[in-house]
Design goal:
It is a single chain. The chain is mainly beta. It has one helix at 2-11, and strands spanning 29-34, 47-53, 61-70, 75-83, 92-99, 102-110, 116-123, 130-134, 137-142, 151-158, 169-177, 181-183, 188-191, 195-201, 204-209. Strands 2, 7, 8, 9, 11, 12, 14 and 15 form an eight-stranded antiparallel sheet that branches. It has a seven-stranded antiparallel sheet with strand order 6-5-4-3-10-1-13, with no helix packed on it. A hairpin with a 6-residue loop joins strand 7 and strand 8. The longest helix is centred in the N-terminal third of the chain and has 10 residues, at 2-11. The protein is globular and about 45 Å long.
């Protein structure tokens, strides 16, 4: 019962920086996984990573993994790839961070459709400083405020009123870090209609839908 209450409570909270997720509310829409720590506890402390297959669709969308630093207020670090007016509708990898130190966003290298890239956000277990990156870049983040994760996420995000077909979406090898990296041992699925996900395991899923 406690676990159910925790999941229900967290499921009413915000995803990164946006409105509460409900199919009855305006976009953005989401499809993917929350990690969620055990009831009353926290996730493994030192980061998240995952492999994301790159899709090339008409419209605006992004796909990412996230370290949630706080749900209230909403603080996070996010790494993935984006296609939007901000990227001139090119497929670009990105990093985004919001914490007590402020907001930061940066694009990095382009992404090739049909190729799978790894994205990661990691805290050094001894120095407690964070870094993030992908196959072909990395960024030093230093100490964040707050400096501990309350959840991990892996999602497709579709932010505009025009629906985007995200068929072909595939997230794989979602992992958390203690000292070494371990595959996710739990997940909570979420998809806003008309989007859907197919769970392969706690650390892998497909997503699609949109029009």
């Amino acid at each position: 019962m406690v676990k159910c209450l925790v999941i229900i409570l967290l499921s009413t909270m915000l995803l990164v920086g946006i409105n509460t997720f409900s199919a009855s509310l305006p976009p953005p829409y989401y499809a993917g996984y929350f990690y969620y720590g055990p009831p009353g506890g926290y996730p493994p402390p030192n980061g998240v990573k995952g492999n994301i297959y790159t899709i090339d669709k008409d419209g605006t969308y992004c796909q990412w993994v996230t370290v949630m630093l706080s749900y209230t207020p909403m603080y996070w670090v996010q790494v993935g790839y984006d296609k939007s007016s901000k990227s001139n509708f090119k497929l670009l990898s990105f990093y985004e961070k919001k914490d007590e130190n402020g907001y930061d966003f940066e694009y990095f290298n382009s992404r090739t459709p049909g190729v799978t890239y790894q994205y990661w956000i990691s805290k050094d277990p001894s120095l407690h400083v964070w870094t993030c990156g992908s196959n072909d870049w990395s960024k030093f983040l230093n100490v964040l405020k707050p400096n501990s994760a309350v959840d991990y996420q892996a999602f497709s995000e579709m932010p505009l009123p025009t629906l985007v077909n995200i068929d072909g979406t595939h997230f794989m090898y979602l992992s958390y870090r203690i000292y070494d990296w371990w595959l996710w041992d739990r997940c909570v699925e979420h998809a806003d209609e008309p989007y859907w996900i197919i769970k392969v395991s706690n650390y892998e899923f497909y997503a699609g839908g949109g029009w």
